[in-house]
Amino acid sequence: MRYGMLWARVVLTILIGATSVAFGQSSYQVIDVPDGGTISGTVKWSGPMPHNLNFPITKDPQICDPDSRKTASLERLIVGPNDGVANTVVYLKNISAGKALVLPEQLRHLDQKHCRYIPHILLVPQNGNLSMESSDPTLHTIHMDGAATYNLPFPFPNQVSTRSMPTPGLVNLRCNGGHVWMNAEMLVVSHPYYAVTDESGHFELSNVPPGTYQIMAWHEGWGIAGKEQSYDVLTEHRVERPVFTEPRTWEKSVAVSANQTSTVNFVISGKE
Q1: Gap between the Cα atoms of 127 and 132, Å rounded
Q2: pLDDT digits 0-9 by tens, 55-73
Q3: Judging by beta carbons within 10 Å of its beta carbon (0-12, 13-18, 19+), is residue 211 exposed, middle or buried?
Q4: Residue of 89, 98, 78, 37 lying closest to 216 (CA atoms)
Q5: 2-269 has which CATH code?
Q6: pLDDT, tens digit, for every residue of 90-144?
Q7: SS3 category, 62
Q8: Best exposed site among 57, 79, 87, 266 by fewest CB in 10 Å?
Q9: CA distance linking residue 68 with residue 76, whole number of Å
Q10: Taking the domains of the chain in order of start, what are their residue ranges?
């Protein structure tokens, strides 16, 4: 088991490096886009839902479990009533020029509330700032690895902390305060043509220069590969937290015409 977990960590390190290459690109140029088009579509789930998407709440139940459910959703796969898949990142691959690098403010601000990361998927522009706070009256410690490495304590509620994100790529967020089910993913990106699907699986990319592109759908993955030892910085006890399987990607070609809307739909499943 120890060898298997070590190998899983090696594979994860390789995947993080590959993801940094995928999400980071150089020489993006900001230009005027007077005749830009729009790409709109959905990401839908097909087939049965996977199991084991929850994790036991083992600490601070009065804060983390106000509804006494005993378990927390890992939020790794959110499928809506019409099979739309939330929290999928859809983006254009290797676009070299376009609109200014501006992303929604709500995807650049992280809150820790009822021992959840809100939002679960973050998008931060390269060299931009991520702002963070905790609404919970307990110690949270955000541990980041990947394209950014921080270990940031939040001992008091409603105090905002910011960090710059100079390196593009994927950043994993976990809690080193013993709330082992808490997890989120952040993409630090070098161009603005990224969107996160909503509860219905819908996305939209606006003001895209006319041309033909490869459009990617990226999902963090929903499987649990096992557990790993972690450290609760408050109690100084060893705890176990889940290790997740690798992210999944899907790719299509899309042609964008001036002042027109192109439609791209993705269908994903656990069979792929």
Answers
A1: 16
A2: 999 999 999 999 999 999 9
A3: middle
A4: 89
A5: 2.60.40.420
A6: 999 989 999 999 999 999 999 999 999 999 999 999 999 999 999 999 999 999 9
A7: helix
A8: 79
A9: 21
A10: 2-269
